[in-house]
Amino acid sequence: MPTDKIRLGVSTCLLGQEVRYDGSHKRDRYLTDILGNYVEYVPVCPEVECGMGIPRESMHLEGDPANPRLISTRTRRDLTDQMVRWAEKRLEELKKENLCGFVFKSNSPSSGMERVKVFDPKGMPRKIGVGIFAGLFMKAFPRLPVEEEGRLHDDALRENFVERIFHFQRWRKHLEGGKSLGRLVDFHTDHKLLYMAHSPKHYRALGKLVAEAKKWDLREIYDTYEALMTEALRLKATVAKNSNVLYHLMGYFKKQLTRDEKAELQEIIEAYRKGHYPLIVPITLINHFVRKYDQPYLKRQVYLNPHPLELKLRHHA
């Protein structure tokens, strides 16, 4: 696992900086105190950076949800063009930042990732919009992991997002080393079971792609591989899919585990499948067997150690 910090974009107010319209902040302790130990943040505040100042008038979205306008609530100024002109320049700068993801401020008319209020002509809001900057960012970086701070309080969504940003960092490191079929096969081998846990369908498609890689142009296969792996990891690793991977892992020890060890591992996998244990319990036992029996193939499987243990992402039942 890479030891250097992940570069992660973030809405500035979530870091505790007083940049909101009323001069306050929305510090998120998980982002600053826990994930921050592994991340180098690149803060972005669309309103301040595009020249709106602190304090400032509050704003909301109005009109067509697919193409809303950013309107100040008291003076009724249309600030859309000002925001868009700034965003286009800022996005070009962010392309040079080597970001591995972005955490947006929920419900924000500039930075909300989804379910942002959009007001119709009668002044009635519907939670169907996307913040102006967030929408432009996701179009500019369609494969980057993105999430909102509110959704990160959900255990499964948090685990999925953090797993994705660590994976994207490994992918960036891979690309920095140069593109070659042999290196791509190695990368895929390391991540096979991780993909299986998220999507057996994409796991099969990625395996077929790599197996038939000699028929493809190298740039084309890399682009297709990146698209498929991104789609796969957007899907959550469920208990059922994880259980399937755990039994798959157990199969590598058929000739090595004693009868009692096999029974113990099977009991623990079943206890996890029934919701009695968190995922970390069978994973810990399997990692023990990997070391005890020196299983070389499983030693390289990212699935068994996809992110730092200190983040405790597999501790929820």
TrEMBL record:
Record-linked InterPro entries: 2-thiour_desulf, DUF1722, UCP037004
Top-level taxon in the UniProt lineage: Bacteria
Domain (DUF1722): residue spans on this chain: 192-308
Protein name per Swiss-Prot or TrEMBL: Uncharacterized conserved protein YbgA, DUF1722 family
Pfam families: 2-thiour_desulf (PF04463), DUF1722 (PF08349)
